Amino acid sequence: MPSILCALSEIKKLAGQTLWYGVSSIAARFLNYLLTPYLTAKLLPNAFGEVSTLYAAIPFLNVLFTYGMETAYFRFAKNEETHERVYSTASISLLGSTLLLTALLFLFRQPLATLLLFPEHPEYVTYGALIIALDTVSTLAFARLRYEGRPRRYAFVRLLNISVNIAATFFFLSLCPRWYADPLHFVHAFYRPGYEVGYIILANLLASAATFLLLAPAVFRINRGFDAALWRQLIAYSAPLLLAGFAGMINETLDRLLLGWWSTAPTLEAAKAEVGTYSACYKLSILITLFIQAFRMGAEPFFFRQAQGQAPQRTYARVMKFFVMVICFMFLVVALFLDIWKYFINHRYWSGLGVVPILLLANMFLGIYYNLSIWYKLSNRTLAGAWITLIGAGVTLLVNYLFIPRFGYWACAWATLACYGTMMAVSFAWGQQVYRVPYPTKKLLAYLLITVALFGLQQAFDRIGLDQWINRIFGLLLLGLFGLLLLKTERSEFARLPVIGKWIR
């Protein structure tokens, strides 16, 4: 019993950290997602496709620029004695490499612009390179806030970043066009009508600059110099993460690029419109993706700390169970009420709504994979993580290559599901042989199958053609039924939780 209470206490601590990092990740990214209805109203699908294409490429470069140094920092900064030395060495490494890589992007901006389907605007690549550079040199400063347990400061900086982004976007896309009608207004000095995509990227650049200025004292807090021997250890640990990161980005964002390249749409503008429609509908998986992002922020340092205690595997298993219950519930909240969530994007993009449940399920598998991945991080087998992600990348490339020309963005959605499902299954099978965790596998599979079955039941009911509100009430009944099922089957677990427990004892 003491070990169970201890584990629950640690889970409660993780939940608290996830909540605070969620204030930044969920609130900030949610505010960012609130730009989606605004941007889909302001931009035609082909223009939104240009924005989506650039923001699909940026994560690849983020992986290259950071090369796994953030995770390496968490792994090697074990105590106060080593922390500053690790931080200084990693920071100097990132500063030097960022200068070099940014210069290369400037040099090859025109070929990259052509590759990204906007050859007339190589300056988009310049803006993107500056965004990546500023975000990269801020990476370890953010990691330090997480390491030192300062989620409030972390949340403040994240929220400021998105606030600047939103304010600048609104200024460029709404205020400037209105003021431009006055021939004497100051906006004539810099504003160009019809340059909406460029201004969206510039708004992001201003936000990244503001973040960098706030974190600059921590960015340049490198008072322990550069330790070459330690740097080699950091690189040896992080190199497989770089490979895994590239493969991960293939799985996460490359489908937007592949859709633009392999689409059989009759014109380039039509291909961009397909990318825009798919990208806008992808945003409707917001609830699950934001929770997973917040969870990862709190979970990575938490899992490493737990590894120093006794029987951490039991804690990991309980975390997984609660995680799966939450994401199953979130899936139903979105999928059962998609006819409401669709108003989050402009009606011009509704033709792609059918891919949303597929993408929701895919992101559930991704979240489970993130939980499972602790086995290779703790056992220093990061190369295993690289191989698993490469397997997923192979699935992504194969399915998209075979089916995009015939099915368009539907192929992208199914490829995402196949990729993350494969990664989840391979990681579980491999991890249980190396670092066994007593996951309640049958129960978790049952929750996932019940979730999909409830959604299928709602879809069958919807085809009867009854009134929309009757369908929504039926959806609420299914959601409530699933909630009651969780409370009944996990009554003993919920009873130990301080807030919920007093209501069900």
Would you kindly provide a written description of the structure presented here, covering whatever features stand out?
The protein is built from 23 helices and no strands. 82% of the residues lie in helices and 0% in strands. Helix 13 runs parallel beside helix 16 (356-372). It has a domain at 34-239. It has helices at 2-33, 35-42, 45-66, 69-76, 80-107, 109-115, 123-147, 151-180, 196-219, 228-252, 254-262, 268-282, 286-306, 312-335, 338-341, 356-372, 374-378, 382-407, 409-434, 441-462, 468-489, 491-495, 498-504. The protein has 505 residues and is mostly helical.
List the helices and strands and how they pair.
Layout: H1 2-33, H2 35-42, H3 45-66, H4 69-76, H5 80-107, H6 109-115, H7 123-147, H8 151-180, H9 196-219, H10 228-252, H11 254-262, H12 268-282, H13 286-306, H14 312-335, H15 338-341, H16 356-372, H17 374-378, H18 382-407, H19 409-434, H20 441-462, H21 468-489, H22 491-495, H23 498-504
